[in-house]
Write a structure and sequence with these properties.
With 82 residues, this protein is mostly beta strands. The chain is built from no helices and 6 strands. The chain has a 6-stranded antiparallel barrel with strand order 1-2-3-6-5-4. It is globular.
Length: 82
């Protein structure tokens, strides 16, 4: 029998926050959207690569280590690293 398991994603909140994605060879302006406890979506003119690790700094909110999970056409999905 083929049983499917569904994993519920954390609730997402629509936001529009400015920030930066920083790394050894990166200093990118980003806009943060669809924020959840485990990650967010970012919008940027810069390209990101899946698996890339950045420090995501959100203006007046703080900073978090983050891994890029996917990237396409000016958007990227980010998972926060604990």
């Amino acid at each position: 029998m083929n049983v499917k398991t569904f994993i519920r994603r954390a609730d997402r909140h629509s936001v529009d926050l400015r920030g930066f994605a920083l790394g050894p060879a990166r200093d990118s302006d980003v806009r943060v959207a669809d924020l959840s406890y485990g990650g967010c979506q970012i919008h940027s003119e810069d390209a990101f690569s899946a698996g890339e690790v950045v420090e995501l700094r959100i203006i007046k909110r703080g900073a978090a280590a983050a891994e890029i999970r996917w990237s396409t056409e000016g958007r990227a999905g980010v998972r926060f690293i604990n």
